[in-house]
Write a structure and sequence with these properties.
Length: 112
Amino acid sequence: MSKRDDLIAKYAADLKDKCGINPDMDLLTKVTVGLGPSIYNADSSTVSGSDEKELATVKNNYLIKKLGLADTADLDKAIASVMDTYGQSNRNKYRAVVYYMLCVHFKKSSVY
């Protein structure tokens, strides 16, 4: 297995174990591939749920630019909901998992 396949398996395990979600592996793979080399960097591969600047990056770069959503209060609510589902006490929130859950929440799998 490649390093990327190992990471995808780790993300799928997080979705199942920490979030109670049975992931669509095809979509999870596409979301992971879409993140490019950032998944291999320890800092950029995770999202800090308590860092406002980090959450703004998720909102602007992913939800608005990538998924093409309008900048409304729903975006902030969705991000907060995903962070709660993932578990605020969980230190390592993988970016691919957060993006996957947001993609499913907004029913935007067609972007991939």
